[in-house]
Amino acid sequence: MATEDDLARLKEQEARLVFDRFDEAEAFALGTRLRDLALDRGLPIVVEVAALDRPLFYAALSGSTAANREWARRKINSVRFYHKSTYRMFLEQGGRERIFPADFGHDARDFAIAGGAFPVRVAGMGAVAVVAVSGLPQRDDHNLVVEALAGYLDVDLAAVALAGEGA
Predict the structure, then answer these.
(1) How many whole angstroms from its chain centre is CA 99?
(2) Percent of the chain with pLDDT over 70
(3) Beta strand 117-122 with 18-19: parallel, antiparallel or unpaired?
(4) What structural domains does the chain harbor?
(5) pLDDT at 61 over 80
């Protein structure tokens, strides 16, 4: 039941965490918000905000590794393809593997469904970008992105957080 509850909440997050507009300045501000949250907490993460066709913001904080950058890249590719959060895709696939099943045809070197990447949607347009974090356990990566989006968009975090989070 907890997975079903999480999936419903993840869909709600994607529906509610929507921008009126999104451009390079918004990407920089969102990336900076995430970076600042991580710096304040001493989190060893990478942060990336990418349009569907190019990177817009990147930060690698102390303690992060090249592997974190690769995980972020692979998660971003998955969101670009499906326009859903990677944590949602992970749970939809049964919550066991952080890669797509072989019959999806996605090379594990380029696609991952570990939590931490989230579609940036604009009202009336759909997904236009991706925000990603890597370096923490996948649910924590996801929750950090949602926290930053909720704060940036002035959405009550408790109203969109996964159960047991943000209260």
Answers:
(1) 16
(2) 95
(3) parallel
(4) 2-160 (3.30.450.150)
(5) yes
pLDDT(165) > 70: no
Burial class (CB in 10 A: 0-12, 13-18, 19+), 158: exposed
- The string of DSSP letters for the chain reads -HHHHHHHHHHHHHHHSEES---HHHHHHHHHHHHHHHHHHT---EEEEEESSSEEEEEE-TT--HHHHHHHHHHHHHHHHH-S-HHHHHHHTTSS-SS--GGG---TTT----S-EEEEEETTTEEEEEEEEESS-HHHHHHHHHHHHHHHHT--HHHHSPTTS--
Residue holding tokens 């969102």?
A: 30
98: its two tokens: 């952080």
C-alpha distances in Å from residue 59, one per residue of 25, 28, 124, 157: 16, 11, 30, 24
Residue with tokens 């890597």: 134
> Model confidence over 111-125: pLDDT tens digits?
899 999 999 999 999
Taking only Cα atoms into account, the Rg of the chain, rounded to an integer number of angstroms, comes to 14
